[in-house]
Amino acid sequence: MNIGPGPTVHGELPLDRQNQGLMLTNYRYAHEGHYLRGLQPLPSRTWPASPAVEGELGLDVGTLQKCVSVLWRDIEWDDDAVSGHVSSIPVITSDSPSPFWYPRDAEISARVYSLATPKYIDVHVKYHCRSGVYDVEWDYSLGYKIHHHISEPPTAYRNPSTKDNPSDWHTRGGWQSICWGYYDYDEEEEGDDDCPNRRRIEEGKVELHKDGVQDIYQVVFGPLDSPPSDDADAVLEHRRKLVAVVRLLFAAVGIDYKVACTEEELDGAPEEFMLEGLTDNWVARGIRAACGFQL
Fold first, then answer.
1. Closest to 108 measured CA to CA, from 221, 11, 242
2. Which residues of 207-227 are buried (b: 16+ CB within 10 A; e: fewer)?
3. What CA–CA distance (Å, rounded) separates 190 from 179?
4. pTM for the structure as a whole
């Protein structure tokens, strides 16, 4: 199983970014210890470090890394999206762990192998974000496909079609949508595409549902019993397990989305990938709803 960075199937990373110590899908962070983004704790400038997915599931460090294989990785970095052009690998310390690159275009696919049965889940994301003078180009979709029988070699993988609206990218050929989003513009506004008066409209939705989360958990870890409704600790543990398995799919393609399970916790949208156009964390709310609770 390929658990290293692996070759880029369509276009290599620039030479100055090939040796960052990237582990699996950790495309931005270069940090001692080789982290799988979202699976192991990592300092953050914006959000307090949250428990790793492996820790939330009571697994030894590295258990899930051995279950994830990168199938496809094609990334174009947007050096213009930040102040200052960075042309070489930055020095990262515990006080400043974040490099200064953001993906302009990314298509990433990974395979999550089951710990319980001879099954696996393919995860795919396609993403675009670029700022213009008067507008922002932004669209993405994240989806998954469950394989209940391992009947084909790993090389038989094919990305889903992404020729139409992002909301349709993961709706065919066995693919199921987790979430999608894009910016549209009010057609009633007069002027051309570069008009500063056009009104930007955010479209997006979390398509993941309760049965889907249960299926994902059962494929990866096996059956999960419902907790007694009068046992608050058991209910919270059950929530965390469901949220963690969803976060695992995000992390498999390099997205670390922290989802609060109690009123005291905070949601933490990923720094590299913009999954919501506004500051409102509607993706986190959608994940909670799919896991059967809200705060």
1. 11
2. bbeeebbbbbbbbbbeeeeeb
3. 31
4. 0.77
